[in-house]
Amino acid sequence: MAGYKSSLDAISSKKWGPILGIVIASVIAFILLAYISPSICFGFLICVLVIYFIPYYFGLKSFKLLAVWGIAFILLMPIPLSYFSENVVYEYEDKDIFSESKDKTIINGTVTPYIESENGTYTFTVEADEKYDVVKLWIAPTSAFGIYFVGNGHSSSYSMTTEGKTEDGKNIWSVTLDNLSPNMYSYMFEGKLVDESSEIDGEFTSAVIGPINEDSTSLYVTIYKTTVTNVALYIGLLYFLLMFMMYTNRRNRELFEQQRAKQSRPEEGPDGTFHCPKCNSEVIKGQKFCPQCGESFAVDPKEVQMPSAPFKGADDDYFCTECGTKVDENATVCPGCGKKFE
């Protein structure tokens, strides 16, 4: 472990250390966002920890540079993520994924064609049990915040008509929509029962992506906008919250050390000697403790001028200048800390 830490310290001291950390963090973050985060609860949090601490331990310790890196990540990571997502969307049609209800009373919901018809005309079909008197199509466009859901004011519903029956007795429902505006859509179906001319809420199917009523360039731009917003909301906010907490912690620690040093440092007398602020005993500049009362001093490393022989206290006893252990006058090694004396 010590060898690993020393190797990491050596890398972080190089000019290219932070760059290497950013590259490693970017690769891991892409894998997390593309393959893992959608499947686990804390995926975004793990990603935030990766993009903050890997560059940090590789030498990117300036909070200004960490802030620049965070903004760059929000703007640049969606570029490869959007390309990846676009390929997933186009491959969706080949996976034979249908919109179906959990109880399987509404099945095989689909749209034809899936990708960019010439005049924006798309036909939606679904199979439903005979108990449903009404079947509706719900369709919603994507936005910067992802796919809209039913009932939020952005989705639209259309009544469907029966087109026959399947061999197992289900009704086939369909509806054709013309002149859809360019966008990437998602859709679902709802089966309803009618009781004395009033509709009763029935069963919803799962939401499925489609149709894709725009060319590949426009689709990429749509996905990029969505991805940038999602990365900013789910990654960016957590990242800058973590950075603020780390900055506050470092600032508080520095203030504490400054206050402690101010209170505990030996005071310089008019004759140029230094005295313990607690018992006023004379001490050496840079002394880490008072040999008379044992007071510990916060010492500035630049001021340390430690002798290489044991220090003589007020009672003619000798002490280690490093740890304060009582030693013999002619001691060559401190039994407390191992410091060697000349």
Automatic annotation (TrEMBL):
The chain crosses the membrane at residues 16-36, 42-58, 65-84, 231-248. This is DZANK-type domain-containing protein. Keywords: Membrane, Transmembrane, Transmembrane helix. Residues 276-338 form the DZANK-type domain. InterPro entries: DZR (IPR025874). The keyword DNA-binding does not apply.
